[in-house]
Amino acid sequence: MHNAGMSSKLIVAIVGAGPSGLMAAETLANSPNSKNFDIHLYDAMPSAGRKFLLAGRGGLNITHSEPTEKFVKRYSAEFGEVTAIQEAVRAFDPQSLIQWVTGLGITTFVGSSGRVFPHEMKAAPLLRAWLARLKNCGVKLHSRTRLINIVPASKNKSAIELLFEGSDRLRYTISADACVLALGGASWAKLGSDGAWVSWLENLGLKISPLEPANCGFNCVWSDFIKSKYAGSAIKNCAVSVGELPAIRGEFVITESGIEGQLVYALSSQLRAEVKAHDSANLYIDLKPDKTQAQVLERLCTPRGSRSFAKHLQSTLNLSGQYAAILRELAPASDFAAMQTLASRIKRLKIKVTSPRPIDEAISTAGGIRLTEMNDYLMFQQFPGIFAAGEMLDWEAPTGGYLLNACLATGRVAGKGVNNFLEFRLNGQV
Ligand SMILES: Cc1cc2nc3c(=O)[nH]c(=O)nc-3n(C[C@H](O)[C@H](O)[C@H](O)COP(=O)(O)OP(=O)(O)OC[C@H]3O[C@@H](n4cnc5c(N)ncnc54)[C@H](O)[C@@H]3O)c2cc1C
């Protein structure tokens, strides 16, 4: 345990040492008034940035190279209010982010899809360099320190009180002049973000949109044959669509319980909305996106001779293995007797999904603190001095580097906000 309260400086408590909290700490440590601040960064886990490290496991997609105006349109929220996120991202756009990464000694490259990655692909070298830089700037990291409640400042009490529990299970209160909550969403709880903050903030009367899985897999009913033979197999080079939305191309993966992967994540917010409205959602797969329906039909109608129909599908349309298996699974048997119908099925094969996979498995979390609760600096309108950043806020975006970009950008806004807020106090104005 430490005693933040003994400092003669203004105490800033940043809770959550993920990308958004680390960025808030760095912004504040580099702010014009930093010499007057004692910056404490708390995290429940034994070390910082655990989810960030996981994000680096499959290749850390740090941002996207598309033009900023297109980039900012990727962000949405259930209640439509994402201006603050878009402004944050405009101010810390992909170019600024790449420069910042380069400043940590990490070089980046743009992948074929426009996504930006560190050359080493991993998060660990970046995190190491970042934590060392924060330490040099005087940011004090307190690991294994879990926030369990927060009491805002009031008319009679200018300090914000944060109730923590240490690894020894002892509880203690820290008084802070300002605080940034950067506690993440509610996926991969074992890495630290468990969404426990929802109840404390709701108890303070704040509006929180329910946390829901985003960029997640979906459940559907597969036969035992598909589950045993093709779970884990990818359906590549297909196009999928939901409702009236234009089809998008890429790949997805068959799982024991349903489907997941790039295309499913990209459509997860639409699928989630459909499931909410109708208890299930239909995803349409085009197994041959490079061919028109007429071309598919022409291939199907080539003479089959003595070949089996399975061989015919394979030799005319290269549909075998998992591709032929899902066609057999999802198309009625009668389709295989009518080539016209089969051609249209190959171009528009319906998978009915019944629910998203549990939030704990999701890449990110939708919902969170409604942006109408916050001012332009991501400070709670009702509670001066308390800021929030990152996935706690109510926005969502697809994978592609948009998530980390917004977490870093909002951490930066909150860090600047704390500086401005405390500047008033330093000048004796509050
Ligand atoms: C498998 C996977 C791959 C991903 N890949 C990418 C990718 O390539 N690109 C991309 O843009 N995004 C990716 N993401 C998403 C990205 O990692 C998150 O959006 C981002 O880490 C969220 O940052 P954050 O700071 O808001 O929260 P987190 O990173 O979740 O950090 C929150 C921190 O708060 C701490 N905390 C929580 N509650 C408490 C408490 N009560 N007291 C004290 N500390 C607490 C946690 O321990 C944690 O360290 C991926 C996510 C996953 C799961």
Q: Give the overall average pLDDT.
A: 95
Q: Given the C-alpha coordinates, what overall shape results?
A: elongated
Number of helices: 15
> How are the strands of the largest sheet arranged?
17-16-13-14-15-12-18
* Distance linking N and C termini: 30 Å
Oligomer: single chain
- Main β-sheet: number of strands, strand sense, barrel status? 7 strands, antiparallel
Note the beta-strand portion.
15-25%
From the alpha carbons, calculate the radius of gyration and give it in angstroms. 25 Å
| Small molecules bound | flavin-adenine dinucleotide
Low-confidence stretches: none
Helix content: 25-40%
- Give the helix/strand class: alpha+beta
Q: How many runs of DSSP E, i.e. beta strands?
A: 20
Could you give a short description of this structure?
The protein has 430 residues and is α+β, with helices and mostly antiparallel strands.
Characterise this structure.
The structure is a single chain. The protein is of the alpha+beta class and 430 residues long. The chain is 34% helix and 22% strand. The strands form 5 sheets. The chain has a 7-stranded antiparallel beta sheet. The protein has a 5-stranded parallel beta sheet with strand order 6-2-1-10-20, covered by helices on one side. A 3-stranded antiparallel beta sheet has the order 3-5-4. Helix 4 crosses helix 15 (402-426). It starts with 9 loop residues before the first strand and ends with a helix. The model has no long low-confidence stretch (mean pLDDT 95). Bound molecules: flavin-adenine dinucleotide. The site of flavin-adenine dinucleotide has 36 residues, from helix 1, helix 2, strand 7 and helix 15.
